[in-house]
């Protein structure tokens, strides 16, 4: 079984959000179970800089205003095969995958990711000059939404899956870009890529993919409803009625494990959690929090509206009045950060915030915390609540999306039903009650730390879906092919992709 996993992000080289973690973990988990999974990603400067050897293996032809370019092949240090779309004019820029150093989206993002999506179709249909062809194309979120569409428009026999990681990001562009992107006139309809007079790249993927997956079972249901469907709930619900929608929970990588975490002063596990007390004192000291006997509530998050950080700011004083403290690590929008800073100023010595992201401190706050605040307005899957449970920090979470699927209320954490201060505080009070009962706290903590969020389980579910869509059984990995002698990474840095007419 051969799978081409198409992504705009990849955690080894270019990360902007959770998609990067999934793109790095799921293909590896698939390969561990015998699937020949390979990753297709853009040739960002960070990608090219990090690769030891990048070999030119194919040429990708033009379609409309999407120019021709080269295709490179490489491997990660642990052997995961990569295909890299090489177009310096589109990808080798300062900034992240989607925006420049000023934080503004690149104005040609539609063309940049149409090139990536078209590369997927060209590889699948044997137009790239490779000996390897996938049995299925697995697209992810709006940047790869045109991949299923190009496959359908080219009458390809290769099926596709579109995974929704966060439907709030849709990839909307002006209607007059249709010609540049090679979108047929007949596709700019309600049943195609049109969305309120614009081109929607995520709708392209949802409309033309053979199957849709979402990153948790609850989120799969939520996106069929108006509150979370972002205007596409009718389309998705229709697919669901036809059996074309599946929720598959994301997994958790092995780099978050308190038993052998290099960032912790004292490792610990479910049987011996003494290391948590050590870490709590160290984190309190490093954040200049006052000595205290009450619980420590942790936050490691993007400080944005979606994550419900305004609720954290509103309940901060109530937590302090009850004898608790809060340690916050993250970066986000200015308004949310300002509200949290105000809470810090008002509760000096008991609420602390590190503005930015620091990987070692993220691990330490998780390890130190008794409870973890995650009041997200919506959460397609979420990883932090899984990290928290693995580190014995019981989540206090809004009952939405993947939070529902990963937290057992009253056993491994606390769920609150309504997105409101009152509902949130009710769950926080339940946490305080458990903290006042040490045997109950230890029981919940041990249950949380025993939870398994293994990527192998997720991979197994995807393999079943791949087999159903392709009609092919899982066979062991065979030898790979398609590589031809070519340039090294250093050569490519100096080379132009291809002369354009």
UniProtKB/TrEMBL annotation:
CDD domains reported for this sequence: GT5_Glycogen_synthase_DULL1-like
Starch synthase catalytic domain mapped to chain residues: 2-236
Entry keyword annotation includes Glycosyltransferase: yes
Domain Glycosyl transferase family: 292-446
Family annotation (InterPro entries): Glyco_trans_1, GS/SS, Starch_synth_cat_dom
Enzymatic reactions: [(1->4)-alpha-D-glucosyl](n) + ADP-alpha-D-glucose = [(1->4)-alpha-D-glucosyl](n+1) + ADP + H(+)
GO function terms (MF aspect): alpha-1,4-glucan glucosyltransferase (ADP-glucose donor) activity
UniProt keywords, alphabetically: Glycogen biosynthesis, Glycosyltransferase, Transferase
List of residues binding ADP-alpha-D-glucose: 15
Top-rank taxon, per record: Bacteria
EC numbers on record: 2.4.1.21
Uppermost EC category: transferase
Similarity field: Belongs to the glycosyltransferase 1 family. Bacterial/plant glycogen synthase subfamily.
Protein name: Glycogen synthase
The encoding gene: glgA
